[in-house]
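Annex B. Sample input.
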Amino acid sequence: MSLSRRTVITGAAALSATACQSVAMTEPATAFPTVGHIIRDDPALDRLIAPDARIEKLAEGFTWSEGPVWIADGAYLLFSDVPQNRIHRWSEADGASVFLSPSGYDGPDGSAFREPGSNGLIAGPPGSILMADHGNRAIARVDLATRAKTLLATRYDGKRFNSPNDLVQARSGAIFFTDPPYGLKDMNELPLKEQPHNGVYRLDPDGTVSLLVDDLTFPNGVALSPDQRTLYVAVSDPQRAVIMAYDLGRAGEASSGRVLHDFTAKVGASGPGLPDGLAVDVEGHLFATGPGGVHVLTPEGRALGRIDTGTAAANCKLGEDGRTLFITSGPFLARLRTRTRG
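Annex B, continued. Sample output.
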């Protein structure tokens, strides 16, 4: 069955391309408007998010914002607009602007793609970021100074990836990433889809690609526990909307897959959204986007509360001094100060 992630997640039509053009240059604001609210299911949330914390809207006019990454050397945030094939830059001093366009596919015929741009972004070696590149169906590295892109992996077992979605790097240098079909037109039904599964992979520093998980329908966000012994994978399937946890062995192999938290009963009932992006704090708490916003979970998967931005939240990451949670929330970028640290 063909599943349109953004149709399911947002429950509304995407903004027009004309509207997206308006974000090309955005003046910095002296005071940002507030949006949404915070739902507290457990008093323990107060230790992570202050009772008077505000959700600030920093910039808007995107089709589907994704993959935020804080660049400490420069004090700015980068994030993707996947359908529009762009990476945007935001800073307190300069506001929002286009950083890289196209961010993914740059060929003459993009008719095979429904989302041709970059998706997940993380910090790479000094002066670079690592990218899940929908349009090039690859894991890539981008030089921040020159914008030059190097493709690090494009295939497993001789077959092209579907459209790598999100990634996280271990201290060993290994990159764990998910490969659902969201970037491809018609997704699972597209003849260009070469992989028989929607997998979770590990890319080792020597370039070796290993398939870790092959039985998830739509693997999406991915993260590591602080001790690097657990791999988390969000599954954006409305029929089984879960966050999975896997034990990681010394060689980076995944085993003992289990459901850490099940959002299935909340799909549609709590608000727009599906399990998508993940962030983890120093104590192992998860900030997990899902139905109704960003859910805050203990390392054991117990729900403490929810950050409701009012729209489907695609991803989130801790940045600035490590205590600011940036949220890519559909058509806008938001932030929230926390009491914890990334």
